[in-house]
Design goal:
- This protein is mainly alpha-helical and 75 residues long.
- The chain has one domain.
- It is built from 2 helices and no strands.
- The longest helix is centred in the C-terminal third of the chain and has 38 residues.
């Protein structure tokens, strides 16, 4: 009876060690080797955000001379 318990304990220990190694390997993979899609998303978002405000500023600059011309014509 003692030998069966000892063999079972050894089998469970090996399974536990393999599970721990697999868990560590998964964490290392996710941390260092998996692509980060969030960086791409943030870069695209920043570019779109900047483009939006650059276009708005250009439109405002284009409208200013028109407004000045209207004011001069009214005087």
């Amino acid at each position: 009876m003692k030998k069966k318990g000892c063999v079972l304990l050894k089998v469970l220990a090996v399974i536990g060690i393999l599970a721990a190694i697999a868990g560590i390997a998964y964490v290392v993979y996710k941390k260092f080797f998996a692509p980060s899609y969030m960086d791409d998303f943030e870069d695209d978002f920043d570019e779109d955000f900047e483009d939006y405000f650059e276009k708005a500023e250009e439109e405002e600059k284009a409208e200013e001379p028109k407004e000045e011309a209207k004011e001069e014509a009214a005087e």
